[in-house]
Design brief:
single chain; mainly alpha; 4 helices
């Protein structure tokens, strides 16, 4: 584990591996959905990077409020199975728009929409 500060920087300890690590056009690690760094090393030797995916994973990636979720993604990846359930639950309300209702009406499902209370 290395702490490189506020600005993105690849730590010096990674220098011996840099010719095997994939970088994007900005010089940042190429990360998969589980925050694993793409590299040409053995499959059983993985490198993970946290707070390095703001450009690939979005602005929320470095937020502390998502630390447990990111950690669970990594643990699931390391184990090769879903130890932590990260699926999103079904929403309590299924919103539909007028456009959605009209499209469903044209498909012959207006009766079902009316019976369920959607308009």
């Amino acid at each position: 584990m290395t702490a490189t500060g506020y600005a993105f920087a690849i730590p010096d300890c990674m220098t011996p591996l840099m010719d095997r690590i994939a970088l994007d056009e900005r010089g940042h690690y190429r990360l998969n959905a589980s925050f694993e760094v793409e590299w040409d090393g053995p499959d059983d030797r993985r490198i993970y990077a946290l707070n390095a995916g703001r450009l690939s994973h979005g602005i929320a990636e470095p937020q502390l409020s998502l630390m447990a979720w990111r950690s669970a993604k990594i643990v699931n990846s390391l184990l090769g199975r879903a130890h932590f359930d990260l699926d999103l639950p079904d929403p309590p309300v299924a919103w539909s728009s007028r456009h959605t209702a009209q499209s469903l009406h044209h498909l012959g499902t207006s009766a079902r929409m009316t019976e369920s209370g959607a308009r």
